[in-house]
Amino acid sequence: MKVAALAYEQLTPAARAEANTLVRLNPDYPQWVAAGVPADIRETFTKPFTAGVGIELP
């Protein structure tokens, strides 16, 4: 997960937007969010994916 967060930080804004869209298309996405994310990468990796979709992070 940390490797993914580091890679995500290196993406351009356009690439991040596309990645966000693709991740949200996965039918398991709500369960991933509900399972929680390690605190050390929570803001970097989850904020873009949950912004504006009404999902509260644990």
Describe the protein's architecture and organization.
- The chain is an all-alpha fold and 58 residues long.
- The protein has one domain (2-50).
- Helix content is 66%, strand content 0%.
- The protein has helices spanning 2-10, 13-25, 29-35, 42-50.
- The radius of gyration is 11 Å and the shape is flat.
Query: Which regions contain 5 or more consecutive residues with pLDDT less than 50?
Result: none
Helix content: 55-70%
What percent strand?
Answer: under 5%
Q: Report the C-alpha radius of gyration, rounded.
A: 11 Å
Number of helices: 4
Number of domains: 1
Global geometry: flat
How are helices and strands ordered from N to C? HHHH
**Gap between N and C termini:** 17 Å
* Biggest sheet features: none
Helix/strand-derived category reads mainly alpha
Number of E-state strands: 0
Please tell me the overall pLDDT.
74
Structure described in brief:
The chain has helices at 2-10, 13-25, 29-35, 42-50. The protein has 58 residues and is mainly alpha-helical.
Secondary structure elements and their pairing?
Layout: H1 2-10, H2 13-25, H3 29-35, H4 42-50
Overview features:
mainly alpha, 58 residues, single chain, 4 helices
